[in-house]
Amino acid sequence: MKILMIGTGYVGLVTGTCFAEIGHTVICMDKDENKIAELKNGRIPIFEPGLENMVANHKNSGQLSFIDNLDDLGKEVPDFVFLAVGTPSHKLTGQADMSYVYAAAEETAAKLARMKSEGFTVFVTKSTVPVGTSHKVEELIGKYLPKERFAVASNPEFLREGAAIDDFMRPDRIVVGSDSEKARTMLEQMYRPLTRLGYPLVVTSTVATAELIKYAANGFLATKITFINELSHLCEKVDARIDELSLGIGLDSRIGDKFLNPGPGYGGSCFPKDTLALMMTAVDYDAPLEIIETVIRANDRRKHLMFQKIRKAAGGDVSGKKIGILGLAFKAKTDDMRDSPALTIIPALKQAGAEITAYDPQAMNEARQMLPDINFAESDEDVFKDADIVVLITEWRQFKSINWKKVYETMNDPVVVDLRNMLPITQMRSLGFTCHTIGGYTDEF
């Protein structure tokens, strides 16, 4: 099938490339001429393991191409138009901003109308959109195309940054929904290379159901993260251990062991934006979700609580302290810093008078723009030089293998605050480090 992917951000580029991988012909379109030029030259604007090679393979084979203008689409009408543009939260209302989605739908529909073809196209919202968006998209397209030439569907993405290709190629489930039976049939055909391998396809009879599934999934996962974070704080108060608690509840098959690792709060491109949009949608429809409202407040509070934890580890005052930061991205295996806990913790430390030196294996370029008033180290071990405290924020695996004896000798005061419970605490303490963890964690058993 022929697919037009509008948007070459994280979702659009990964999804378009993976569609080429399973045999479809994909054109990725983005108005950012510089980004398209980079992609044509084989340079990938995001960090995602395996993506660069996959893009190169399918670009060379002709299965995957890039354009910055719809006039370069060609003469053949696509079977699918995927809308994978940004849906940022509105700064004032908190609602998802649909302007990019609506503009992309209208411009593409106008282009297809000018082609004067009798082909049938399914417009698919791939971006995470509030309930009702697809119906609005249908109205906008209907101004340019007759009903017999198009349908609208929802196909929410479930891609984890750092594991996105695997999530597409080996999904827990694929969700598609449309009010059009023809569209549902075409979507089933499009995903057949994956479903014939046994991966489940959930086809919803209404487009609204598919739209809501994405928000419900992220809302539930955000709730699970926030739940274990709050319990970790309680563990510190009552002399309990959060790692043992997580094991004890995670072995219950009704609960499961995923998303039960405590940390400094969730961030990234999905959970903060999607929980906020879900909350606002529920308010708009007079069906408030009080659980989600509480999760949002608690997650914000969690990030500020981590600042308090660091200040306590510094003896109650960080003014004049040299603090090293390990990890800036919102999680490992990505360079994405959107709503990263680091963006709350570091400014709070700076405002309290601390001097910050930070390092991240992938997010340094992003960090220099978002945190211009801090120092940056050349390596993870350089973070420890002359530091009074070192704080681990992001769970990069390489931080486990730091030469602890070597860095111990370079610190002013060997104090480490591990906000991910991943460091070899027993070894570090035997060398003389003072270690602070979350929820009473220790790697001694």
Describe the structure.
The protein is of the alpha/beta class. It folds into 2 domains: 2-205, NAD(P)-binding Rossmann-like Domain (Rossmann fold, 3-Layer(aba) Sandwich); 305-436, NAD(P)-binding Rossmann-like Domain (Rossmann fold, 3-Layer(aba) Sandwich). Helix content is 42%, strand content 13%. The chain is built from 16 helices and 14 strands. Strands 3-2-1-4-5-6-7-8 form an 8-stranded mixed sheet, sandwiched between helices. Strands 11-10-9-12-13-14 form a 6-stranded parallel sheet, sandwiched between helices. α9 (207-238) crosses α11 (271-284), α11 (271-284) packs antiparallel against α12 (290-313) and α12 (290-313) packs across α13 (342-351). The radius of gyration is 24 Å and the shape is elongated.
Tell me roughly what share of residues is in helical segments.
40-55%
How does the helix and strand content classify structurally? alpha/beta
Count of alpha and pi helical runs: 16
Integer average pLDDT: 94
Number of strands: 14
The CATH homology group name of the largest domain? NAD(P)-binding Rossmann-like Domain
What would CATH call the class of the largest domain? Answer: Alpha Beta
Sum up the overall morphology in one term.
Answer: elongated
Domains counted in the coordinates: how many?
Answer: 2
Quick structural overview:
With 445 residues, the chain is of the alpha/beta class.
List the helices and strands and how they pair.
Blueprint: E1 2-6, H1 10-21, E2 25-29, H2 33-40, H3 51-61, E3 64-67, E4 80-83, H4 99-115, E5 121-125, H5 133-141, E6 150-154, H6 164-169, E7 174-178, H7 181-190, H8 192-195, E8 201-204, H9 207-238, H10 242-250, H11 271-284, H12 290-313, E9 322-326, H13 342-351, E10 355-359, H14 364-370, E11 375-376, E12 389-392, H15 404-408, E13 415-418, H16 425-431, E14 434-436
Helix pairs in contact: 1-3, 4-5, 9-11, 9-12, 11-12, 12-13
